[in-house]
Give the backbone structure.
Amino acid sequence: MFKNLITYRIGEGWQTDAAQLAEQLAKEPFLPCAPTQPLAVGWAPPRGVEHAPLVEVVDGHWLLKLRREQRLLPSSVVQERVDELAEQIEEATGRKPGKKARKDLKEQATHELLPRAFTKSSATRVWIAPQQRLLFVDAGSSSRADEVVTLLIQASPGLSLQLVQTAESPAACMAAWLLDGVTPEGFQIERECELKGSDEQKPVVRYARHPLDIDEVRAHLTSGKMPTRLALSWNERVAFTLTEGFAIKKISFLDLAFEGRPEASGDEAFDADAALATGELGRLIPALIEGLGGEHDFAAGAAAPAAAPAALPAPVEEAISESPPW
């Protein structure tokens, strides 16, 4: 299940099907860190089953997963070992190692300590809607999304990606919604937001579990503070937080989205969860783009018409579990 989404527009020149993409990703599979390797990154089966396809297709949507494993080696531990090695050299030669020698000792210490370091693993999910030429990265930061996008472009020749930007500023729209209480159709303001000032001190005001239709919030807005995050819900089916950069965070599916869906388990749960997530979000995201004035057309150098973007394929009525295996 997706928790965060950063949205990209796929360039028109990319002509690849799911099978071809899987072959391309197979050239850079995930392999665990070797004993002296600080970082390993590669593509892994999104279903979480060994030897399963690297690209899963569910209701016309493609699902990928980038795995990352990093050896955790605190700098203080490395420095302690460098000091030990430097003392040994001083005792043997009567001279303290210079700057260049200590740099070499640091490399030696790192090489010695890496095999004993703990490893930390993480995974980043990618969702491609090929018919709509949209790609979504389930990343909480732009740096992690950039890593995924860079590796994907390297793996698949001809792929170009552009961050989706809306014709109207998300911050300006969120401010208007908070001021007058009028949101795009289907969207509801919830009880969390962050407001930030633009003066030298850059004051920040955060509300959590608090009503936002109050004079205090409006006073902050009229004084010049702008929303950087705002909690919203959509048709009582999905809750999320919208950021000033059009990132969608803290996604959660509400009870109405699960209504009429019996629980699933095992391999069926992956397909059902993926169908639910892509189906609900595939309608929410075009509606959100429309509510922000439509998508900015970089090629034309002007905003695209604010007509409703085509919704992504609707969800199928399949079983769903609340704890997806991917």
Notes: The two ends are 7 Å apart (CA to CA). DSSP finds eight helices and 14 strands in the chain. Residues 301-308, 314-326 have pLDDT under 50 and may be disordered.
